[in-house]
Design a protein that fits this description.
The structure is a homodimer of 362-residue chains.
Chain A lengths: L9 H10 L6 H13 L9 H13 L10 E7 L15 H11 L3 H9 L2 E8 L11 E2 L17 H20 L4 E7 L3 H13 L3 H4 L8 H18 L6 H8 L2 H15 L3 E4 L2 H13 L7 E3 L6 H10 L15 H19 L3 H4 L7
Parallel strand pairs in A: 1-2, 1-4, 2-3, 4-5, 5-6
Helix pairs in contact in A: 1-6, 1-11, 2-3, 3-14, 5-14, 6-11, 7-9, 7-10, 7-12, 7-13, 10-12, 11-12, 12-13
């Protein structure tokens, strides 16, 4: 278990990291745009790849874009709300899938191998002992959350610990030389938490923001909606207070992701936000400190109905739309390949003058 | 110059290759779907990546999907219609960019290096001599097309030769062990030809299917539309006869792409179709032999307004939408990485039983 410094509240932890998040100076973006316009292609013809390159140049403050040491953090935790029968899979699957990640057999492993991305698997709250393995980052805060249909998902000190884990993971990535990281998660029951967060943050009814998750039938979705409505009625989370929302209807991995995203922005790392659950963590981070949005890239559009509302909240257009809904960081992995393409094009393409190519007549 | 067997007409060449295109047997796709449902993920949760894997299994007739020896064919040719001032760039840029491709400085080179794809640069009709280089595939049919605003773009024997080049390139790829190839092109003026083809095949006015190309201003777009209208009025291409359309308002690289796509399907290769110009070649191939559609993957949605209409014609949903409009095969390169992801997931993921993960309760 993570040792928690019980003297520091979630609010103090957030305040400290949020204060470190820099503003983006537009001069680096202007330089990047001028460089792009000299490369051997019609102006703007690489579309969103050019937009990515410009944003990265602003984040990295550099004329050479660096995507080395790419890493995806897959945070795993259990959810007490699974008692309410809100998932198509038994809770034990969280720990079983962590083992699968460590053995290299999951989707996230396959994609990260293809694209040269390190997968960092973090137990931040799996219920029970995962087979110990040197590759697992053991930062367990608790054996899952409490059942949010009956009361707050977390104690205040658990939330503080989970946020701290995320902030520290980002700091470690920065120290290892990463400039681009991705989010991922695993947790049976966590679309229920993400839908509850979405309902609260957007003020929309649970029925509009709740989907099939891992594959519920229509009766299962109706039950899930009722459980989310109950969790909100029991806890009365304060929409204007992201910390309150996170503690009452969040999850340990979602809190960890919120901390990771804030911590990454504080270290000037670009962060690729995976799907629905990761975007819930990102939306809470943006609510806590809007400057964090400058460092985010939304990986893909999940088919979970709540995801589009969260993307609006964080003002990001996803890079991909492949109708995925797996999580783990799988969308992040694919999107990181696209972001690396943008960086490579920016760094490696010839200019009109270096290649002896005539410019536009007009 | 390519030697043309003047005894064979375009129609005979097409007929021969079209007859070799196999049907897809659904049993391989059913087997693939069963395999996907055993992998450690909720059923269908990889979205379009699963659809890609199923289609590849049908094409390759295999339980192990093979994307080795990936290659993109970038076919370059000039267009006589550039006399009408339809491009923002001078015609000389076609040959200059071919040189840039051979030196590795263009966008297509950067992306292919990232994703381990070979770029095969083919001079199928560049006006004038490109600096000879061992890396250039010299299959020049003519020094560009004639000006289609004054008469047919090609002679019948030129069309026959360009189709043959494409068919032979596909055969060569199959012999070198490629299972997945991509299309690309370079040719100042070729969005004018692609827009004319789109107008004829869809029966839509030129004004609806014509865009800025490499970056025309609004007066330039108006001029381009008028030129396309004139080319159609002068040549009266027969909408129901793709060969007639290709000869009158096509291009040597577009004819080459049509041949390449038909030839690839005849050899059971999956073909990634790049953007607007490549899709014009694919639409003509599909008009000539609808079975070819089973072998196509549309890489991305270009922002050229005609592209969406062509995608409807070939009944393909593009994999990516990054607002690109560069050509060269740049969309193909990115899409090939996604297709390889689908294959890798299919080949490498653990099953529920091999990983000891519980299945769905329902």
């Amino acid at each position: 278990m993570v040792e928690v410094d019980s003297r520091r509240s979630p609010r103090e932890i957030i305040q400290e990291v949020a204060d470190e998040i820099p503003a983006i100076e537009p001069e680096w973006q202007r330089r990047a745009l001028r460089h792009l316009d000299n490369l051997t292609k019609p102006r703007g013809s690489l579309g969103r790849l050019e937009e990515i390159a410009v944003r990265l140049a602003g984040i990295e403050q550099s004329d050479l874009l660096d995507c080395k040491n790419k890493a995806i953090f897959t945070l795993a935790a259990d959810h007490g709300v699974t008692e309410e029968n809100v998932s198509a899979y038994p809770k034990a699957v969280t720990g079983q899938m962590v083992r699968n990640f460590l053995l290299g057999g999951a989707a996230i492993n396959v994609l990260c191998r293809q694209f040269g991305i390190e997968v960092i698997v973090v137990d931040i709250g799996v219920d029970g002992k995962v087979d110990l393995d040197a590759r697992l980052v053991d930062r367990k805060v608790a054996n899952g959350t409490h059942n949010m249909a009956r009361g707050p998902a977390m104690e205040e000190n658990e939330l503080a610990a989970a946020l701290t884990v995320g902030v520290e993971l980002a700091a470690g990535a920065a120290e290892r030389g990463s400039r681009l990281i991705g989010t991922g998660e695993m947790g049976i029951g966590n679309t229920t938490a993400a839908s509850a967060i979405t309902a609260v943050l957007t003020g929309r009814p649970a029925s509009e923001v709740t989907g099939v998750g891992t594959g519920l039938d229509s009766a299962g979705v109706a039950r899930k909606i009722a459980v989310i409505e109950r969790a909100i009625a029991v806890n009365r989370p304060n929409r204007a207070d992201a910390i309150d929302v996170l503690q009452k209807v969040g999850g340990l991995e979602i809190a960890g992701l919120t901390g990771l995203i804030l911590g990454a922005a504080a270290r000037r790392l670009a962060v690729v936000v995976d799907g629905f659950i990761s975007t819930a963590g990102a939306a809470l981070a943006c609510a806590l400190e809007p400057r964090v949005g400058n460092f985010l890239f939304a990986a893909h559009r999940s088919i979970e109905p709540g995801h589009g509302f969260l993307l609006e909240l964080i003002a990001q257009r996803p890079l991909l739309d492949l109708e995925m809904r797996l999580g783990e960081g799988t969308g992040s992995a694919l999107a990181m390949a696209v972001i690396e393409s943008a960086a490579n094009l920016f760094n490696q393409m010839a200019t009109f003058s270096s290649a002896g190519v005539s410019g536009a007549v007009a």
